[in-house]
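re the bet — no i am not wrong, look at it urself. input seq straight from the record:
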Amino acid sequence: MHILEKGKVAIKEATIDFFKGIFNYLGVTTRRGFGWGLSIGFLWLIPLILILDVFIEASKYVTFAAIGMDVIMLAYFMMYLAAYFRRMRDIGFKARATLAIMVVQIILLFVPIIDILALLSMFAMPWIAIFVPSGQFKTNSSNKFLQFMMVKKEVIQ
């Protein structure tokens, strides 16, 4: 089942879509849905990390807490990644364009001097996803590269 947010998304719906869509990369997420889902998901993440940090302080639970923290961070990252791909599709980028941007950013992290720019662009992408209106990068161009990277305006996903 695809997550298809449209119009003004309520906070409850955005949160449910964020958590429910952990492995759902299909569909679209609105600006409001992405922003609220990201925020509420992060607010759930903080207490869990603090609880696990208490277990880390207790020496006999260090392994359990470290594994638990890794699992929680991985789950949050998977939820964020799925919502990010859906949001970028709503803006107008195809999944391959979003993936290409991410791969280039990761490769540039290993290039001296440019690495700081790659890191800054990685931090900027969620903000771009929140503030760019839906359909902004959809295209009707006959350029093959743009057609390969961006969704056509008349196509509804």
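see?? Helices lie at 11-20, 31-57, 62-91, 95-108, 115-131, 144-149. told u. also The longest strand covers residues 3-4. so pay up
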